[in-house]
Amino acid sequence: MRFLQLKTKITDMSDQFEKVQLLIKEVEAAQPETAEALEAFRIQYLGSKGLVKSAMEGMRVIPAEQKKEFGQVVNLLKQVAEDKYNQLKEHFEAQKEAASVGAMDLSRPAESLPLGARHPVSITLNRIIRIFEKLGFVVADGPEVEHDWYNFTAMNTPEDHPARDMQDTFYILDAPGMLLRTHTSNVQARVMTSRKPPIRIIAPGRVFRNETISARSHAQFHQIEGLYIDEGVSFADMRQAMYYFAQEMFGKTEIRLRPSFFPFTEPSAEMDVWLGTETEEARRLTKGTGWLEILGCGMVDPQVLENCGIDSTRYSGYAFGMGIERQALRLFNIPDIRMLFENDVRFLSQFTAVQ
Ligand code: PHE
After folding, report:
1. Is the pTM of this model over 0.85?
2. What is the rounded distance in angstroms from the CA atom of residue 206 to the CA atom of residue 208?
3. Ligand 1: distance of its center to the CA of 281 in Å?
4. Which is deepest, 58, 80, 96, 187, by most CB within 10 Å?
C-alpha cells in the first residue's frame, strides 16, 4: 500500500516533468500565422489561466529535493513562450506597418496651401519706402487716432482755420480733442517734438476724411509723409529729392512744381510727373494734359518748427506727402478705388506674383 502510494507519487512527479517538456516542444513548434492566432497563443500559454501558469501549479506535487530542478524547467517553458510571443508580435507589427506604407502613394503631390499675397497698397508703399531709404530716410510711425494738436494745431492749422474745412474728419465723441488723423503729417509733429535734428523720416500709414465714397475717393486711404530737417536744407534739396523719386518710381520722366498752399509749409508746391499724351491710359490719367499730380510738398514753415520746439533760426527743412491709392490704381491698372478696400480674395490673390 505504501509502495503503491509512493509509486503513484513518483509517476505524478515524472508526469509533471514530462508534461512541461512536452509543452516546451509544443511551444517551439507552434507557428501562429496571423496576429489573431498569436493572440490566441498568448492566451493559451501565457494568459492568467494559461498552460505556463498551470504547469507552475504542478510544483505542489513535486518533492522538495526536486523543486529547484522543476522550477527551472517551468521557467524555461515560460521563457520559450515569451520569446516566441515577443518575436512574432514584432514581426506582425512590422508587417502591418509595411502594408500601410504600401497603400500610401508617395508620388502624390502635396495638398496645395493657399499662399498669401501682398495687398497692392502695401506693394506700392514698399516701393516708395525703398526709394527714399536709398536717400537715407528711415521709417517712422504715428497713431491713427490722434490728438487735435498733432494733426492740426502744431501743423499751423489752429481751430477755425479755413484749412480745417478741407480736411473734415471723424471726431471721437467721448474723448474731446481726439480724432482720426486726416493726413500723415501728424507724424511730423510727433517726430519733431520727440527727437533732435537732423531728422530724415518717411511715415506711411492710414488716414481718414469725411468724404463721400466713390470710384475715385474714399473715407479712408493711405499716405506717405516725408520730413527732412537739418541746418541749411534748401528748396533745391527738396526739388532734387523729388526729382530722384520720380525717376525711380516712373522711369525716365520730368517733374514740375506748381505753387500751392499748405498751412504747414512755406513756400508750398504740388508736384506733377510727366506721363505724356501718347497712350490712351496716360491721357485718361492726366485728363489730357500729360501731367499727373502726385504729391504736395514745401519748406517746413518756421512756425511749425517753433511749435515743436525746434530753433527755426538754426534749422530748416522740407516736407512732402502723397496719397498711395491713386498710385496703386495706376501701377496695377485697377479701375475702382473701392476694390482696394473690399478684401475680395479673388481680386487680392492676383497679386501673389508681385513684390
Ligand atoms: N498733408 C498734406 C495733405 O494731406 C500733404 C503735404 C504733406 C503737403 C507735407 C506738404 C507737406 O494734403
Report:
1. no
2. 7
3. 27
4. 187
